[in-house]
Specification:
Layout (H helix, E strand, L loop, with lengths): L2 H5 L3 H11 L1 E8 L2 E8 L2 E8 L4 E8 L6 H4 L13
């Protein structure tokens, strides 16, 4: 499945694909939203959930890795290297 195929599905079918085929990668908080990051084959899906209203709001589908920056910046790699010079 390609991102363009996913985008033309209705919301119910998109959520079904996420449930059946997606790999959960990470989540982040942004204001009142909890945003889950999933990988579906060759693209990514962010699912926005409003934590106060307790409801799904929207999805963002992308294959451009620059949109992964908010997640990558959260990763602490200090224990992976010897940073003493």
């Amino acid at each position: 499945m390609k991102a363009t195929d996913f985008k033309i599905l209705d919301q119910f079918d998109q959520l079904q694909v996420i449930e059946d085929k997606a790999v959960f990668l990470d989540y982040r908080q942004d204001g009142d939203y909890s945003i889950g990051l999933f990988q579906v084959e060759g693209f990514y899906v962010e699912v926005f959930f409003h934590v106060i209203k307790l409801e799904y709001k929207r999805m963002r589908v992308f294959d451009d890795t620059r949109f992964l920056d908010p997640y990558i910046s959260q990763i602490d790699i200090t224990d992976l290297c010897d940073c003493r010079h």
